[in-house]
Amino acid sequence: MEGGPSARIREGDCAVLKRDEVFKAVSVLRRRKITFEKQWFYLDNAIGHIYGTTFEVTSGGNLQPKQEVEETTTETKEAGTDNRNIVDDGKSQKLTHDDIKALKDKGIKGQEIVQQLIENSTTFRDKTEFAQDKYIKKKKKKYEAVITIVKPSTRILSTMYYAREPGKINHLRYDTLAQMLTLGNIHAGNKMIVMETCSGLVLGAVMERMGGYGSIIQMYPGGGPVRAATSCFGFPKPFFDNLHEFPLSKVQSLLSGTFTTETLPADPEENALGEEESNGLSEEKQTSLQETEEEPTPEAAMEINPTEEQDTMDVNAEDVEFKENKEKENKENVREKQMKQWERRKKLQEAAALLREKNADGLIVASKFHPTPLLLSLLEFVAPSRPFVVYCQYKEPLLDCYTKLRERGGVINLKLSETWLRNYQVLPDRSHPKLTMSGGGGYLLSGITVVLDKGKSDPSNSEALKMEEPSSKRCKLQDLPC
User: Is residue 464 within 8 Å of 456, Cβ to Cβ?
Assistant: First the structure.
């Protein structure tokens, strides 16, 4: 995967637009209009530049690399001692909305507009230095059309999804995702099982950490896996060679040994050709029948004029060509469908073969479903002394899962944890925690698998152990006076 500081923006890449703390994932295509933070522009001029370049939106929606302007320090800033005498009555700014609109129509850049706003403010010089910096930052955000194009990564995409659409990733916060990758011991060469309903964000994070080495088996509910966030990473094709998928509906049949796929054709092309030949024979029969039906009687032939005969011949030729083209398209569609079905069955068999080995190096679960049945069934495919991590937005399902695992056995070092995150503003003389912070990033249940004691897991033995009281307790009951 091409990355690093020297990676350049290419057409067809997946990129992330950034403005302050707002992100948006887009595909880099020419002459494609993109709207971001009330600004529209084209990414044509961005192609060829290095990722991380900051652009300014000019007239016509074109992007131009922003030139860093050094702030002149010769002029000493005039600042007040406090803001107690400043009254926000809306009369301190001499420029009106119409004046600002006229400046924009003239094509004046946002930096110059901000400078004119400062010069026409009657209260700017009376504000403290910190208040002046805050005022400038606020006006720049409003009037400067500046964006930065960055390369997608787990941190950026998880931050973007959590800010824009947290429901699609089950409110999985970026620090919780980092904890999952650490507790799951994700690294290159692993054989991982991933079950998630987070739009493919967790799958993409695991793929990025593994770097294209090893194998991943994605368990999915329904008709097929959802990988909307995975596509935003922009992984190269070799990354998907070792990515397998397996439906959750087939897990029980795989465990019981009754899993079977439909009989695969020896060669899909032979079947397609065979069907084409049979279709050709039937089509010949149909055409011969149509010809016999359309043969005119001698009386009708006497009535047809030569001009009418030519017209009918032309129409028939056009109809034949149209039918032939349509038949070719239908045959191609049939062949494509057969090839796709054959490839899907082949991939399903490969994933089933990997799961039957029962030697996965780890298990990651982050879904909207109850984790207990998922975890108990999927742990059967994990080798002993391997980590597993389960994410849930709520604590109660994980508590139930924790209890069931303790009763079942076969796991050690069970931990139920919650990550706590607080952002800080770090500025000279005014560093402090930010006023707004996340209420919660979900809960994690982690542990390590061990060889399951069959005798301990037998329900009859567990009932017998429950019925038998400890000797110390029996002695205490006997010593009690009546």
Answer: no
Q: What is the pLDDT of residues 372-411, one digit of tens each?
A: 999 999 999 999 999 999 999 999 999 999 999 999 999 9
Q: What is the CA radius of gyration of the chain?
A: 34
Express each pLDDT in 412-424 by its tens digit.
999 999 988 888 9
Let me know: does 186 contact 192? Beta carbons within 8 Å.
yes
User: If we measure between CA atoms, which residue out of 319, 295, 21 comes closest to residue 156?
Assistant: 21
- Does the structure show a pLDDT above 90 at 70? no
d(CA 436, CA 186): 32
Give the C-alpha separation, 238 to 354, whole Å: 19
User: Pick from 196, 235, 234, 197: which is nearest to 213 by CA?
Assistant: 235
**Burial zone of 242 (CB within 10 Å; 0-12 exposed, 13-18 middle, 19+ buried):** middle
On the question of pLDDT at 207 being above 90, the answer is yes
For residues 58 and 42, the answer to whether their CB atoms sit within 8 Å is no
As given in the structure block, the two tokens for residue 102 are 């006229």
| 2-16, 65-79, 108-122, 342-356: least confident range | 65-79
